[in-house]
């Protein structure tokens, strides 16, 4: 069974329509460790040793967050700046994360069509998240396409929250049970364009 670490960051949980329900669902999946970074570090005083130890204990690292200005909320940047140290995560002696899997699970306010080269954002979501992918590459980790929830602001009005959360729960469960095709997931643009194509076994 793969051990999955979900690092959740949402500075305005009172306004979260989908991120918080997804985070709550993740807490019910066996093999998934869930950390609310803003709750753990309200003053941004990251415990580097604690976070590095947690990374060593897990096989998959997920950054779950809303897409803020084509990136992530500030605490994720602070976490990465401090925790992914030279000679731990990268460098001549920095082999601690070799072979681990990493990806972003993001909510986006606009539709899928906006995240194309001809769309409103003039780029694919994966392209916009390239700093995360390059970080994973530098740390010799395997980066998967983002798990994207598009048009997040309309999910409640369209009564699609429950379905969206259920799909995320199923994906996480399959991930812990090694039933996700990591090669296909690494080569995709998102993990949600054709979600069934990544399942191996009973969900295939």
Question: How do the strands and helices of this protein lay out in sequence?
Answer:
Blueprint (H helix, E strand, L loop, with lengths): L3 E5 L10 H8 L5 E5 H4 L7 H9 L3 E7 L7 H10 L17 E7 L17 H4 L1 H9 L3 E2 L3 E3 L11 H16 L5 H6 L17
Parallel strand pairs: 1-2, 1-3, 3-4, 4-5, 4-6
Helix pairs in contact: 1-7
Question: If you had to describe this structure to a student in words, what would you say it looks like?
Answer:
This protein has 204 residues and is α/β, with parallel strands linked by helices. It contains 8 helices and 6 strands; from the N terminus they run βαβααβαβααββαα. Strands 1, 2, 3, 4, 5 and 6 form a 6-stranded parallel β-sheet that branches. Helix 1 runs parallel beside helix 7 (161-176). The longest helix is centred in the last third of the chain and has 16 residues, at 161-176. The two termini are 18 Å apart.
């Amino acid at each position: 069974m793969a051990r999955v670490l979900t690092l959740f960051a949402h500075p305005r949980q009172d306004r979260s329509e989908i991120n918080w329900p997804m985070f709550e669902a993740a807490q019910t999946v066996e093999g998934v460790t869930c950390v609310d970074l803003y709750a753990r570090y309200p003053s941004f005083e990251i415990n580097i040793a604690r976070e590095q130890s947690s990374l060593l204990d897990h096989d998959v690292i997920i950054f779950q967050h809303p897409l803020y200005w084509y990136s992530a909320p500030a605490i994720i940047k602070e976490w990465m700046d401090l925790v992914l140290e030279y000679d731990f995560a990268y460098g001549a002696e920095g082999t601690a994360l070799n072979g681990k899997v990493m990806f972003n699970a993001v909510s986006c306010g606009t539709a899928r069509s906006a995240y194309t080269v001809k769309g409103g954002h003039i780029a694919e979501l994966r392209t916009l998240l390239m700093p995360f992918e390059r970080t994973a590459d530098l740390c010799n980790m395997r980066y998967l396409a983002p798990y994207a929830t598009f048009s997040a602001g309309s999910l409640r009005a369209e009564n699609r929250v429950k379905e969206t959360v259920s799909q995320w729960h199923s994906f996480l469960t399959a991930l812990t049970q090694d039933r996700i095709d990591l090669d296909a997931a690494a080569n995709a643009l998102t993990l949600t364009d054709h979600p069934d194509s990544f399942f191996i076994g009973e969900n295939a």
